[in-house]
Every structure is written in structure tokens, then in C-alpha cells.
Amino acid sequence: MSVSFEEIKVGDSWRSTGRTLTEAELTLACMTSGDWHPIHADAQYAKSSVGGARIFQGTYCLHVAIAMASHFPDLGPAVIGALGFREWKFLAPVVPGDTVHVEVEIHGKRLTSDGKRGVIERRIRLVNHEDVTVQEGIATMMAAAGVAS
């Protein structure tokens, strides 16, 4: 059930269900990004790395985190679009087979000067199955204000 901009409160939070990242996704990430660094693509090379295995590109995991967080809060048709990211950190490696979920908390909100739109700041954490935060940061989005849910 969608909510309106006005119903959202700083401190509101959500947790998604889990999602297991696969070998196929790592290959797809290499293919679509063109990033075939051995840490992502060469199992023998990666064995001797800090993580001990091939790891996902940090930007792929950012993509996953934002997608998983897209319905928190569920603003329905009021969503206008993303405004950007800040303070995004890659904190720990993510490997094929890891199951991740996101934790989303409303960090801030304000109306724009015309009062017709609202800016929402969400702190998003990508957390693995060992309860380790692997990435986190703030994502800012814009939504229509005054739209009934």
C-alpha cells in the first residue's frame, strides 16, 4: 500500500527480504561494465587476494541496493525520480553466493520552494547474510507532495 510524502516521518524504517547473488550476475556485471579485472573474473588470481575469492564490482552492488530499496517507502505514482547519492561507502567484499538485503531509514525530508514536491533522504544499508554491512550511504529522491495515497 503506497503512502504520501506527508505520511513519511524521519526515522521510519524498512527491511527487505533477502536475495542471493549468483555467478551469472557476476559474469553479467563484467560483461555490461567491461570491467574484467582479475579480482572479478579470474578465480585463481582472486584466491590470493584479500577477499580470497572473486568479488562483485562495488557499483554492481550499489545497483542491487538501490533496486532493492526502491519500494521503501512505497510512494506509488508520486515518485518523480532519483536525485543522487552521497557518502556511499564500499565496506566489505561481496562474492557470488552471498545473500543480501537492504535496510532503509528515512534520514531527512523537506518540501521544495514551490511546495509541490518533496525531497526525501534515505540511508540505505546493504547487509549480507552474516549481518555485515557491506555498503551504505544516502540516496536522495524527489516525490510529488499533496498526492493522496
Describe the overall structure.
This protein is α+β, with helices and mostly antiparallel strands and about 150 residues long. It has one domain: Thiol Ester Dehydrase, Chain A, CATH 3.10.129. The chain is built from 4 helices and 6 strands. Strands 1, 2, 3, 4, 5 and 6 form a 6-stranded antiparallel sheet that branches. It is elongated, with a radius of gyration of 17 Å.
Count of spatially separate domains: 1
Class from secondary-structure proportions? alpha+beta
Q: Give a count of the beta strands, DSSP E runs of length 2 or more.
A: 6
Task: Determine and state the CATH class.
Answer: Alpha Beta
Distance between the termini: 8 Å
CATH architecture: Roll
Radius of gyration from the CA trace? 17 Å
Secondary-structure element pattern, one letter each:
EEHHHHEEEE
Q: CATH homologous superfamily name?
A: Hotdog Thioesterase
Layout of helices and strands:
Elements: E1 13-15, E2 19-20, H1 23-33, H2 38-41, H3 43-47, H4 58-69, E3 79-90, E4 99-111, E5 117-128, E6 133-144
